## 1
Amino acid sequence: MEEVEAQKTDILIIGCGIAGASAALEAAKSGLKVTIITKNDKLEESNTFYAQGGIVSLGPGDAPDLLKEDIIQTGDGINNMEAVEILSKEGSKMVNSILLDELEIPFMRSSPDTLDYAQEGGHSRRRILHIRDTTGRTIEETFVSALKGFSNVTLLPSHTAVDLLTVPHHAKDPKYYYRNPRCIGCYVLDNKTNKVKTIFSNYTILATGGCGAVFLYTSNPKGAIGNGYAMAYRAGARIVNMEYIQFHPTSLFHRDADGFLISETVRGEGARLKTKDGQTFMDKYSEQKDLAPRDEVTRAIYEEMTNSNSNYVYLDLASFAKIDIKKRFPHIYKTCLKYGIDITKESIPVVPAAHYCCGGVLVDGWGRSSLNGLYAVGEVSCTGVHGANRLASTSLLEGLVWGTRSARHIAAHFNPVLEQGPIDIHQWYYPEKEEETDPALINQDWISIRSTMWNYAGIIRTPKRLARARADLDYLHHRIEKFYKEARMDTNVVGLKHGIHVALLIAYAALGNPVSRGSHYIKS
Ligand SMILES: Cc1cc2nc3c(=O)[nH]c(=O)nc-3n(C[C@H](O)[C@H](O)[C@H](O)COP(=O)(O)OP(=O)(O)OC[C@H]3O[C@@H](n4cnc5c(N)ncnc54)[C@H](O)[C@@H]3O)c2cc1C
């Protein structure tokens, strides 16, 4: 197949959610040449777009040390203190300077001069800024529109990262083996032509988001299959804490709702969980009752569902709300109504769903991974802020803080490594006789991955279930690798290869950690 000309950029950013977009905005301001790719046709499509509840700041009478305490309490004490310190101290400053002053995000106000702060589980006070229940959508759209105003930013939708380019691994010249490994860009599939381009970059920032969609039931959009964890792992970067998968307690239980999330701020406004026969139950499980951290609420629901042989529990907002439900939660109200549930009058059937990955590519306070030239920011990274479990509404903030800090660090220490001479690398290899992909095969492999992860590596894990997950996934991995080598490249084939690697990373990490902590719960 004919070769596609290689491209060069100062910073390649893979992913355009809040983390990638924050990094791009900061880098653009420094004058560096920035290229952002996203595998979706629409630049805004990301987990960020669907975030409902809001972003943590500091509310009235609040202080960084109080936020720190809540983060550590929820994270079960294994948080990286340096990272928690950065988030607690710098977070609200960046919310003010970037989101409020620079981008003028219209967060809700109780009066023209007073911001409205919401409450969520695990928080000791109200400190979450929001735009009703569609906070992520407004933030994401504002970032994308700001980025379009920079002439040094190239935005490439419909481009899927396939593999990180590293020397010595991809270099043709054997003398590169004597050098320290470095990331120098990425092989990128143009989804429209199905050809693989080479994009060389002095620095690469991975901002590919989370992996909720490797589980059967998830609050994440279907594209959240953890591409970045798989690519970083294959490139040799350190990955940690992948067993800590957070399950959100309340996604809408409905055949067609696709895991639609019922935000935790709904419980923050008084809603209570009830069994199918109308009994509240969280008092039995936690002093914080319905506002306990997510892992505790999720396990309580699981227990109640098991005891009553039921597929769901109820979330009752109608009987307890002191707010105007339609005004405060217009998106949740309208979506539930579409499925025949009027949340101003009746309880919402809910079920837990895979939501957030607390682990990922290990990075320092500037987003630097263990591989030279590679930074990771947002959900794909593990800064250690969340420890074993994430405090609600801290992930948008983590994306903003580390996205911005990574670009500042690159700009301050910029080393144009690509100018040291061309690096002769292997071109993408296309098999001589490519096989047309059969969508039925890809769908079936995904069903196997997702149901294995849900049933054997889900909310309640046991060593036997995990061992079975590992065996089944190992076998599937072998089949998928063979298929990948022969199949015609397209974004779905690439996604499947990334997906099986991510499922294995989670299953192996869970099997290797016999201690229940935070969101990793293992029953012996
Ligand atoms: C329904 C829902 C509600 C949530 N509510 C909140 C909330 O209220 N507050 C909060 O703090 N957090 C919330 N979260 C979590 C939060 O939204 C995410 O953790 C956060 O948005 C992640 O941001 P990110 O920039 O790291 O990744 P994302 O926003 O997921 O962006 C990932 C980007 O990477 C791109 N990408 C992925 N793979 C590739 C590839 N191979 N090639 C090219 N591009 C690729 C995607 O297209 C996308 O542009 C919620 C999550 C969900 C799903």
## 2
Amino acid sequence: MRPEWLREPADVNALVAHLWSTTAHKVDGVLEVGGVAVTDLVATHGSPAYVLDEADFRRRARAFRDAFAGADVYYAGKAFLCTTIARWINEEGLCLDVCTGGELAVAERADFPMERVGLHGNNKSLGELAKAIEIGVGRIIVDSFDEIDRLAALTRELGRTARVMLRVTAGVEAHTHEFIATAHEDQKFGFSISSGDAFEAARRVTGTDGLELLGLHSHIGSQIFDTAGFEVATRRVLALHARISDEIGVALPQLDLGGGFGIAYTTQDDPSDPAQLAIELTKIVTEECRSREIPVPHLSIEPGRAIVGPAMCTVYEVGTVKEVALDGGHSRAYVSVDGGMSDNIRTALYGADYSATVASRVTGAEARLSRVVGKHCESGDIVVRDEFLPVDIQVGDLLAVPGTGAYCRSMASNYNHVLRPPVISVNDGEMSVVLRRETLDDLLATDVAMGDLES
Ligand SMILES: Cc1ncc(COP(=O)(O)O)c(C=O)c1O
């Protein structure tokens, strides 16, 4: 009944340190992050709330920047972006990857230097592309032949040059410890190397006035724990890079290997640190370039999850506890919290595993296998599928889930018209609101027909 990897804890009060941001610890059973007790945070800002550990976020950003000192590190804003994050990323000397006009608007509002922004997206609109060119975005990662045509027309019309990279698919798909290397990838992103589309795209871009081809870009997946998949992809991408040099006569100055570096959501996960990743990726690139006798391009990477994921946790309040009988005389405790799939869709969407701990008190009770669920009208509304929680867990307890910084707030929805929680940053005993809690007025603001009801 319990997943094989899940062990019953010796002490149900204890935090598994490496799943939490670096400043997180418990004092008499109360979780403190950034010197702030989550009980105080909830008393001030309500529940549920995302708690963002500023020192931890900055430390992880800096660790990537320092480890990849000869390269550029683009923080992948899709993991979580707001003006505060853009500002911190800038202050820590990283670049920023955005993939829509909305994310670009956040970067602009935060005064992020546009030459250090990369714009992704498989279906960027004319408006998004025009805006990117006008405000001087440093690189546009081109994803289709239609986009090449759009950019050619736009740069002509605006009398500007766009610096671009080509998103290529190397036939490698990696998730966690597994990767698959095939000739083809059946997905929507990029130009296939094996079909010849990627070479043809390079030919068209290099033959277009107004477009400057900086290099090739490959992103192979997410939650990746070793570099074997990167190695296969890099060889294939550098083979194309060399062919472009030989046959088109253009030595591309850059290469981007994307993001996808894994983090520890539960005790199953054992991520590499940035220093180790830097050593391994740099070795893969330099050895492949040496064997092909080509200059080593300037490298860039795009970590999102590995920077912001562990820097946040979500604090919920328990609303109901239910014992549900299972087959074979077993039972499971269903602990319902005041959020759910609207603030963390990853469990429902990807079958992601999370962990949880009681965050507001110490307990002497035994642990039992429990499931943390949300308040939505979906039986798949699960936050933490399996966790040992104390048998005395009760209504009003605070429950904290670590590792919710990436793709939780950024994928949050208003399903069931639930209001999205705030993001509260904590540092040195101070809390500040980074994103405020939504209100019913926010929710109803787009319902313009409401006026008809009132009149
Ligand atoms: C092109 C690209 N770069 C970077 C990332 C960031 O991935 P992660 O947050 O897993 O590091 C993604 C995620 O989907 C991506 O599509």
